[in-house]
Write a structure and sequence with these properties.
The complex is a heterodimer of chains A (about 375) and B (about 290). By secondary structure, chain A is an alpha+beta fold. Chain A has helices spanning about 5-15, 20-30, 35, 40-60, 80-100, 180-190, 190-210, 215, 220-240, 260-330, 330-350, 370-380, and strands at about 100-105, 105-115, 115-120, 125, 135-140, 145-150, 160, 170-180, 245-255, 350-355. In chain A, the strands form 3 sheets. In chain A, strands 6, 7, 8 and 9 form a 4-stranded antiparallel sheet that branches. Chain B has about 290 residues and is of the alpha+beta class. Chain B contains 8 helices and 10 strands. Classes of the chains: A alpha+beta (about 375), B alpha+beta (about 290). The interface between A and B is large, with 131 and 126 residues.
């Protein structure tokens, strides 16, 4: 309805009163006389008059005076002509203001010729001759955002969603969109942003309802956002909405507040499990290293024993062999010498009691020996 | 001056009549031309059109896709689990004549009420159907259900002159009073999971420790075995060496070994000997001649 009657400008023009009719004709006729003139013959006349007036305004002040029936040419004094010129100028300026409009770089405009879609206006200065053509400027490239699932919204939009395994998950997400086809957007959708919202919520709930809780919480966030984007875009395309979904941001996919503590506890338990396992590993490492050390020690000791024993044996054997070699050269003498030397050494170090000649009864003395005292003297030394 | 006084009112009236007899239908609209309340003409295409001033009036209807959100209703699928459901519909006024006849002057507001009750009925019917359980609603089949709701609503909405473009379920949630039970169950599930984690942690830890202990015993006993083998070999080698060396002269070995045994055994100052002087060592105590003692 917006461009239908030109609202405020129509009123302004009417306010001019006497001049109004002429100016109207001028506006329309200047551009497309054929379109209107063919259907309404009356307008033709008005147009001609209007063109004349325009010539007066542009060309020279006194030029068209006599030919003008309305502008006061008939007996109109200079004063009334001046009023007319000023009024005409004002009307042209107003018309210009109504007809020229600018489109900013992020915008496009949709032009309607008598309510029918005629053209898309690109950034820059655009011309839409009022009142035949009306234009609506729409911000096209700027990204618009719909937040869905925030808690401050109504109950239905709170992000609690039911999953296919009958769990509840709290989803907050953001849909970023812009307009690719302003004409479609204007002409096909009564409530653009609301539609994006509703379609997004429906799509997200549909995806969540078909998924289980665990994957939503853990790894599938990117996938969910991507699927949602495709689904939302698909639905909006069936509406021919001219809307492009730039991206879907999954801000939050958490368990509901009421149970989030339990979920945190699971995480804590996972950490605890890890900790227990690591501590057991640490124990195992310590104990195993100790055992390997002990094993090595045992083996080394055994090897040491082998070396010791063999060396001793070889030493003893070699000594014996050496002695034997000498012994074989002079057995009797060597034998005697060895005996005496040894006995000398042995008896030299030992406390001795030598009992005299007792014949066969030598044993009889032994019981009387003061063995305790003998021991004391030894200790005394 | 006289002509002007006539022409001016005539001009104004002419323009007014012209203005009253043309009307513009926007790209977003459809228009209905009524003559004393009777539908004369339908203008669906945008553009300029004419009517008879005063006698005919124009009613405009929105030609865009309109939105309708249904109230939240509770449905009971065939498994008796109740669900809170709401939906939205997107529709268009397809047939203005029928629309006008069906809703009268109430327009879109009246149509919304009618469509809303149609939708609620269809939602109840489709979601409450025999083979539909809450599991069906919470699954991939949801889309099929939505399409069924749309198609059935479509049939009824046609009598209102409406074309239902789309019907979509928004929330399918549990009723408020069931939420807490669900939260409780979710919590219990998590607690079970947490307990399970800890138990598994302990299990794994115990297993690791037990394995370590076993490996320790194995390692040490193996080493002990190896050590004993080595010691045994060492002893065997020693015996071999001795046997080879001492076997050369057994008599001398006995003598020689005895001597060194005496020396070792009687070493030190804690030994006392009571000796009779009749051993070989004291042979010369009695005589200077060898063999006298015998």
């Amino acid at each position: 309805m917006a461009g239908h009657s030109g609202g405020p400008w129509g009123g302004g023009s009417g306010g001019d009163g006497q001049n109004g009719g002429g100016n109207r004709g001028n506006n329309g006729g200047g551009k497309r006389p054929g379109d209107e003139g063919s259907s309404i013959p009356d307008i033709d006349e008005v147009i001609k008059k209007g063109q004349d007036q325009l010539r007066v305004l542009m060309g020279g002040r006194g030029g068209g005076g006599p030919r003008d029936p309305q502008g006061g040419g008939e007996g109109g004094p200079t004063f009334s002509r001046g009023t007319f010129v000023i009024g005409g100028l004002a009307a042209v300026v107003l018309w210009g203001l109504a007809s020229f409009y600018t489109v900013k770089p992020e915008e496009q405009s949709v032009e309607l010729f008598l309510g029918e879609f005629s053209a898309i206006g690109t950034p820059g200065l655009n011309f839409a001759p009022w009142p035949l053509v009306t234009a609506e400027v729409i911000n096209v490239t700027s990204e618009r955002t719909e937040d869905i699932g925030d808690d401050f919204n109504s109950r239905t939009e709170s992000g609690l969603m039911l999953t296919t395994d009958a769990n509840i998950v709290d989803i907050d997400f953001q849909v970023v969109w812009n307009i690719v086809d302003p004409a479609k957007f204007l002409f096909n959708l009564a409530q653009g942003p609301e539609t994006v919202r509703a379609v997004s919520e429906s799509a997200m709930r549909e995806i969540i309802a078909a998924s289980e809780l665990a994957p939503i919480l853990n790894r599938d966030r990117g996938l969910i956002a991507e699927t949602a984007k495709t689904s939302i875009q698909g639905t909006l395309d069936t509406y021919e909405s001219g809307i492009n979904i730039v991206r879907v941001n999954l801000d939050k996919a958490d368990p509901p507040r009421e149970v989030i503590d339990a979920f945190r506890e699971v995480q804590a338990a996972e950490q605890e499990r890890d900790r227990l396992e690591r501590r057991a590993d640490a124990y195992a490492n310590t104990v195993l290293a100790g055992a390997r050390g002990e094993a090595a020690q045992l083996l080394e000791e055994a090897e040491g024993y082998r070396a010791q024993v063999v060396n001793e044996a070889e030493g003893d054997a070699s000594r014996f062999s050496a002695v034997l070699a000498e012994y074989d050269k002079a057995p009797e003498v060597t034998r005697k010498r060895l005996y005496l030397e040894t006995m000398e050494k042995v008896l030299g170090d030992v406390d001795k009691v030598i009992l005299g000649e007792t014949g066969g009864e030598g044993q009889g003395v032994v019981p009387y020996l003061p063995l305790n005292e003998l021991r004391k003297t030894t200790e005394g030394n | 001056m006289k002509r002007l006084t006539y022409l001016l009112p005539i001009g104004i009236v002419a323009v007014a009549v012209l203005m009253a007899s043309i009307f513009i239908v926007d790209e977003r609209e459809k228009a209905l031309v009524l003559q004393f309340g009777q539908i004369k003409r339908v203008k669906e295409d945008p553009g300029l059109a004419f009517k008879i001033p005063l006698i005919q009036e124009v009613v405009y209807y929105d030609d865009r896709i309109l939105a309708l959100d249904t109230d939240t209703i509770e449905v009971t699928p065939s498994d008796d689990r109740r669900l809170v459901v709401d939906a939205f519909a997107r529709y268009r006024i397809a047939d203005v004549v029928q629309f006008r006849q069906a809703v009268g002057v109430g327009g879109v507001a009246a149509a919304e009420t009618r469509l809303s009750s149609i939708l609620n009925a269809q939602i109840r019917e489709v979601l409450g159907a025999d083979q539909v359980t809450s599991d069906t609603i919470l699954s991939e089949d949801r889309r099929g259900l939505m399409n069924r709701i749309r198609d059935q609503a479509q049939g009824e909405a046609r009598s209102l002159g409406l074309n239902v473009v789309d019907v979509r379920l928004k929330q399918t949630n549990l009723p408020e009073q069931n939420l807490n039970a669900t939260f409780e169950r979710m919590r219990a599930e998590r607690e079970r999971e947490a307990a399970d984690e800890i138990a598994r942690g302990n299990e794994a830890a115990q297993r690791v420790r037990a394995q370590a202990d076993r490996t320790v015993v194995e390692l040490v006993s193996e080493a002990r075995k190896e050590a004993e083998i080595v010691r045994g070999e060492a002893d065997a080698e020693r015996n071999g060496i001795y046997a080879q060396a001492y076997g050369a002269d057994q008599n001398f070995f006995q003598f020689y070994r005895s001597l060194s045994a005496y020396e070792e055994a009687l070493k030190g100052e804690n030994s006392s000997m009571v000796i009779a002087p009749d051993s070989e060592f004291f042979e010369f105590f009695k005589s200077s001649q060898p063999g006298a003692a015998e």
